[in-house]
TrEMBL record:
Stored InterPro entries: AA/rel_permease1 (IPR002293), AminoAcid_Transporter (IPR050598)
Transmembrane segments: 53-72, 84-109, 130-151, 171-191, 203-223, 286-309, 386-405, 417-438, 450-472, 484-504
Gene Ontology CC, one term: membrane
Record's bilayer topology term: Multi-pass membrane protein
Keywords of this entry: Membrane, Transmembrane, Transmembrane helix
Pfam families the UniProt entry points to: AA_permease_2
Compartment annotation: Membrane
Protein's name in the database: Amino acid permease-domain-containing protein
Length: 570
C-alpha cells in the first residue's frame, strides 16, 4: 500500500498495462503530449487539530450509531419468532461476536489505509478493474440510501408521544423530523465542535439509560418489581409456543437473527472519518473494539432485564417498545409514560448526529475524486471550513425521503431499504481481504491481522444477510404491505443502478459531452490535502475518432507497485 508521500507524483508511462489501474487515485486528464491541461480551481482540506477526534469522541461516534431504537423495541419480535428465552439471549451474544468479526476485518483495512471514506477505500484497493466501477456502485448506495430519515422520523414520533399525542406516521411527526435533521446539519456545518460535543453527551446519555435498564433488571431478578415474577428463567432453554410467540420454524429463526445483527449496525462508523481522528491508527484500534464490546455486553444484559420483568405473552404481543413495558413493570405507569418517550427521542437524535457527521464525510470523499455530479460544489468546505455542502446533500436526500412517500407500507419500505445493500458491500470487503491474503502479487500488509477463519465467518454472515430475505416466509407473502421479495430485489437493484451510473459517467458523457470536470488530489509540502478541479474541453482528444485518454495521478498513500497509474478509454 505504501506510505503518504508529500508533493505531486511523477507521471506514468503511456505503455503501462491497464490491469494495473487503481481507482484509489483521483482523476486528471492529460493532453496528447502527456501534459496536464491547465486549470485554476482548487480546494484545500485541512482539519485543525482542535477539531480532530480522540478516542472518547470515536467511541461515542460508534455508540451513537449503534444504539438507536433497536435495543428498545427489537427484543419483542425476536422472542415472538423463537419462543425461547435462552435462544434469544444466545442470538444477541452471537450477533455481538459476529459484529466483532466484521470489526476485525475493517480494522485490518482501516489501519492499512488510514483515510476517510471507509468501504470506498477498501473496495478501491481490491477491485481495480474496471476503473471506478466499484466506486460508482458504492457511491450510489451511500448517497441514495445513506439518509437519516428513519431516526429523524422516530425522533418526531417520540416527541409527540412525550407530549401526550399518539404515535402516528403523519405530517406533524414528519415536520418535527425535518426540523431535527435541519438542526443537526446546521450544527455540524456552522458549529462543528458543538456538534461533536452534543454527540458525545448523547452517547454518555445512551449508556446511562442502558445501565439504568441493566441495574433495574438486577433488581427485578432480586424480586424488586411491581408485577409478579414472570418465571422466564425457570426453564431458560425450552422452546415454547404460546399466545403470539413460537412456532415460526427455520424462517422465523433466520429473520430473528437478521434483526439482531442489524441492531448492531453502526460499528464501522469511525472508519468513515479516519482522516479526522487524532493519531488515527491508535485511536481506531482502541475506540472501535471498546465500543463494540461495551455495546454487546449492554445489549445482552438489557435483554436479561426485560425477561426479568416482562411476562412472555405480554412481551411477544407488545404494541409499544419493550422498554416501555419494562419501565411500567418496574416503576409504574406514570414514570414510564413521562420518561421513556423522551429517552428514546434523545437516543434517536444522537443517531442522527453520528450518521450525518460520518456519512457527509464519505460524500465529500466521493466528491473529491469527481465521482458525483457537481463534485466541485459537494466537495467544498466553504464558508465555515466544514463539509457544509456534503452535509447539505445528506439533508436533501433525507428530507426527500421524509416528505415524499405517503404514510404506510411505501414509506416503511423505503426507510428500511437502506440496510440491505450494505450486506453486499460488506461481503465484497470480506471477499476482497481474503483475495489480498492469498495473492502473492498484491503485497498486502497491515498493522492489524485478522485470523483467516474470522474473515470467512464474516463473509458467510453477509451472504446469509443477502440471501435470507429472498426466502419465502411461512405465512403471508405480503404481510408488510408489499411482496417479501421486493425489499431485497430493490436493494440489489440500487447496486445495479451504480453500474448504470458508471457506464453513463465513464463512457457516455465523455463521448457526447462538451467537457467534463475532473479532480486531481495531491498532498502539498505542508501535509495538507489539495484537490484541483479542471474543466476539460472535448476538443482535447488524441484522435480523430474522439477517443480521449484519461491518466490518473495517485492519491497520497497509494503505491505505484500496485497500480497507482493507468489509462481509461472513454
Amino acid at each position: 500500500m505504501g506510505t503518504d508521500q508529500k508533493g505531486p507524483k511523477p507521471w506514468a508511462s503511456p505503455d503501462l498495462d491497464a490491469a494495473s489501474i487503481s481507482s484509489v487515485a483521483a482523476s486528471e486528464i492529460l493532453d496528447v503530449n502527456g501534459q496536464p491541461i491547465s486549470g485554476e480551481d482548487s480546494l484545500d482540506y485541512v482539519v485543525p487539530e482542535s477539531r480532530k477526534i480522540g478516542v472518547t469522541g470515536a467511541v461515542f461516534l460508534i455508540l451513537n450509531k449503534m444504539i438507536g431504537t433497536g435495543i428498545f423495541s427489537t427484543p419483542s419480535s425476536i422472542f415472538a419468532s423463537t419462543g425461547s428465552v435462552g435462544i434469544c439471549l444466545l442470538m444477541w451474544g452471537v450477533a455481538g461476536l459476529l459484529t466483532l468479526s466484521g470489526l476485525s476485518v475493517y480494522l485490518e483495512f482501516g489501519l492499512a489505509i488510514p483515510k476517510s471514506g471507509g468501504e470506498k477505500n477498501y473496495l478501491e484497493r481490491v477491485y481495480r478493474q474496471p476503473v471506478y466501477l466499484v466506486t460508482s456502485v458504492f457511491a450510489v448506495q451511500m448517497v441514495l440510501l445513506g439518509f437519516s430519515a428513519g431516526n429523524s422520523l422516530a425522533f418526531g414520533r417520540y416527541v409527540l408521544l412525550a407530549l401526550g399525542y399518539d404515535l402516528p406516521d403523519g405530517w406533524p411527526a414528519r415536520a418535527i423530523a425535518v426540523l431535527c435533521i435541519t438542526f443537526v446539519i446546521t450544527l455540524h456545518s456552522v458549529f462543528p465542535k458543538w456538534g461533536l460535543r452534543l454527540t458525545n453527551a448523547l452517547g454518555v446519555f445512551k449508556v446511562v439509560v442502558l445501565l439504568l435498564i441493566v441495574f433495574s433488571g438486577f433488581a427485578a431478578l432480586a424480586g424488586h418489581r411491581r408485577v409478579p415474577d414472570p418465571h422466564n428463567f425457570d426453564d431458560i432453554w425450552s422452546i415454547e409456543k404460546g399466545d403470539g410467540f413460537g412456532g415460526g420454524g427455520a424462517y422465523a429463526y433466520a429473520t430473528a437473527l437478521l434483526q439482531v445483527v442489524y441492531s448492531y449496525k453502526g460499528w464501522e462508523n469511525a472508519n468513515y472519518v479516519m482522516g479526522e481522528l487524532k493519531h488515527p491508527k491508535r485511536t481506531l484500534s482502541i475506540a472501535a473494539p471498546l465500543a463494540v464490546v461495551g455495546v454487546t455486553i449492554l445489549y445482552v444484559l438489557a435483554n436479561v432485564a426485560y425477561f426479568a420483568a416482562i411476562p412472555k405473552a405480554e412481551l411477544a404481543k407488545s404494541e409499544v417498545i419493550v422498554a416501555g413495558l419494562f419501565f411500567r413493570n418496574m416503576f409504574g405507569e406514570s414514570a414510564a409514560a413521562r420518561s421513556l418517550p423522551a429517552l428514546v427521542a434523545l437516543s434517536n437524535i444522537g443517531n442522527v448526529l453520528a450518521v450525518s457527521f460520518t456519512h457527509s464525510r464519505v460524500n465529500q470523499e466521493l466528491a473529491k475524486e469527481g465521482i458525483l455530479p457537481g463534485s466541485k460544489f459537494w466537495a467544498s468546505t466553504k464558508p465555515f471550513k466544514t463539509p457544509a455542502a456534503s452535509l447539505l446533500l445528506h439533508w436533501i436526500v433525507t428530507v426527500i425521503v421524509l416528505v415524499g412517500p405517503p404514510p404506510g407500507p411505501a414509506y416503511n419500505f423505503l426507510v428500511n431499504l437502506y440496510t440491505y445493500p450494505g450486506a453486499w458491500i460488506n461481503g465484497l470487503v470480506a471477499g476482497g481481504l481474503i483475495y489480498l491474503r492469498f495473492s502473492k502479487t498484491e503485497g498486502w500488509t497491515s498493522p492489524w491481522r485478522t485470523w483467516l477463519p474470522v474473515i470467512f465467518i464474516y463473509l458467510c454472515l453477509n451472504i446469509f444477510l443477502a440471501v435470507t430475505p429472498f426466502i419465502p416466509p411461512n405465512d403471508d407473502w405480503n404481510a408488510d404491505g408489499y411482496p417479501y421479495y421486493a425489499f431485497p430485489l430493490v436493494g440489489t437493484g440500487v447496486l445495479g443502478l451504480g453500474a448504470v451510473y458508471w457506464v453513463v459517467w465513464t463512457k457516455v458523457l465523455p463521448r457526447f459531452g462538451g467537457y467534463e470536470l475532473v479532480a486531481e488530489k495531491v498532498i502539498d509540502d505542508t501535509g495538507a490535502e489539495v484537490v484541483r478541479y479542471r474543466k476539460i474541453s472535448a476538443t482535447n482528444t488524441p484522435s480523430a475518432e474522439g477517443e480521449s485518454l484519461l491518466r490518473r495521478r495517485p492519491a497520497a498513500g497509494a503505491s505505484a507497485d500496485h497500480g497507482s497509474y493507468g489509462t481509461i478509454e472513454a
